[in-house]
Design brief:
The structure holds two protein chains of two kinds. By secondary structure, chain A is α+β, with helices and mostly antiparallel strands. Chain A is built from five helices and five strands; from the N terminus they run E-E-E-H-H-H-H-E-H-E. Chain A has three domains: 27 residues, no CATH class; 92 residues, no CATH class; 56 residues, no CATH class. Chain B has a three-stranded parallel sheet, with no helix packed on it. Classes of the chains: A alpha+beta, B alpha/beta.
Amino acid sequence: MGLYYELGVGNALSIDYNKRSVQVRVQHIGLDESFLEKTMASQAFEVARRRISNTVRNAVQKEQINMRASLSRGNLNSLNLNMRSASLPMLIAPSLNQAAKPENSITSTVASSFGDTSSQGVQDPLQGKIVLASIDSLHQMTGIVSKLKSYYNFLKAFPDLRQKVVLFQVIRGLFFKSDNMQGAHLPEERS
Amino acid sequence: MWLFDSVESLHKLNQDIIKLVKKIRNEFGRQCLIVESGSWPVQMRLALWSKAHVLFVSTLKDGLYLTCFEFIWTKYLSNDFANSAMVLSEFTGCSSQFAGFYEFNPF
């Protein structure tokens, strides 16, 4: 192409183009099959699998707590009680446990394993669910916003699938308190 | 995070994503959407692929997206190939290399 070029740093070809020096590098891109096989047979892989299902279990449990809280709010509105919200959970908790169970069969089955985080002999929270997964970096080009919007529309259009579908989205570089692997708590934001 | 602070658009994107996540969670419940941040090592990624049924990629422009190949290998090695599917944006670099996946336009 008649361009001036020279060998740059790290075997890269540096080409002078439009008063700029552009570094070009040619490499093979691919996956190492034996490495993947070795990783999947390792102990760390099993641990990772357990951590992922624990994360989902945490989310389901939190949802349950939220449901109870909103239910209690509904009860109170009907009774016209004027009390401080801080003292409410203690007052209503025993009656709510009975009321919340018939509401939802999926959450009630998880309720039986409530508090048991050892994950040995505990039912997998992802069993019987369709799991969508994706790992992206925080960037406009990855189209996370359009993805979430489409997922929102999807859930809106198919109400019967809300209990069956999980989107597990990992975003590299996002500033967000997640439902975590370490057990950090996201503030409850139901209005 | 000097990069994050200096790039305003990234900050805005972060806010948009968090807003959407909260909207979905408030309306449909927390168990529908699980969001994690941070970079995941290989073991975690493979574990996630082995747990997942559908790979959902929505890139607007891409060179070569190796995640798809990783997903396929994981499914192949765990003998779960028949129960899995891929939903890819038509702008991913590798979408021309596969057959039998679901293609969509993110715009």
